[in-house]
Amino acid sequence: MTPPAADLAADLRGRIAATGPLRLDHWMAACNGHYYASRDPLGTAGDFTTAPEISQMFGEIIGGWIADLWLRAGRPAIRLVELGPGRGTLMADALRVLKRVPGLADNLDLALVETSPVLRAAQNQRLDPERLDAQWHDSLDAIPDDRPMIVIANEFLDALPIRQGLPGGGERAVTSTETGFAPATLPTDLSPGEHCPAATAIAASLAARFAAYGGAALIIDYGNTGPPPLDTLQALRHHRNADPFAEPGDSDLTAHVDFSALAIAATHAGGRVTAAVPQGVWLARLGIEARAAALKSRATPAQAAAIEAALVRLTAPVQMGQLFKAMAITAPHWPQPAGFGA
Ligand code: SAH
Question: What separation in Å is there between the alpha carbon of 226 and the centre of ligand 1?
Answer without folding.
Answer: 25
